[in-house]
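JOB MANIFEST
job_type = single_chain_structure
chain_count = 1
residues = 264
[input]
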Amino acid sequence: MGPAAGGGEALLSLRGISKHFGPVQALADVTFDIPAGRVTALIGDNGAGKSVLIKCIAGIHAPDAGEFLWEGQPAHIRNPVDASTLGIETVHQDLALCNNLDIVQNMFLGRERVRHLALDEEDMEKAAAKTLAGLAVTTVRSIRQPVASLSGGQRQSVAIAKAVLWNSKLVIMDEPTAALGVAQTAMVLSLVRRLADRGLAVMLVSHNMNDVFEVADRVAVLRLGRLVTVKPAAELDRQIVVDLMTTGASTRDVNPPSQPGVQP
């Protein structure tokens, strides 16, 4: 298992991932590594292939060609159960939370703990509270609070905590700050950063360049289904990324030399 660009050991490696839908080639020969302990931002215009790629990793779509390596070993991700078994959890844009259930019920939905043929509410409450505390999610009033009563940022935090609860090693987040206000966005980005600091691999899909450069260690750019580049975020800036997304190349420098007589 070799080092990935931007530092960190490769947890998941994509090798030549391609996907067709009829005559449409959604992904073509996508190859890069996702390291542990780093936030890898996946960006690209609409139709670039971002959603298809994360669905391939999550086991929703089967690639037509290519392979996955998990911790350096070939891995078969044929469905979401395979992905979850490896330690891959995805927080989709719609969050998949049930408004009529409370936080604990949502976090254990479909994976309820049973003791003596009855739900082990106490054990689930303890595990939910421990996970939220470990992620420093302190804004919820009670873990028995209905999800319908939560703010957008709190809902996103619960969805992320739900993913982390299952001993995940890679957490994929699809537009986690969409439609959030400034304070709630800051709360979610701080949580994203804490996941990576705890050693998890994080893949962040976002259209928001401010968010990307706030938390990402590495940036992977897709254009028309092909990977344009994967670079440390420090070697890029917003304008270079826009160039790469729209044309596939950029001649700009991150820190262009100042011209005589021109204020930087």
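[summary]
Residues 141 and 210 are 30 Å apart (CA to CA).
Confidence is low (pLDDT under 50) at residues 258-264.
exit_status = 0
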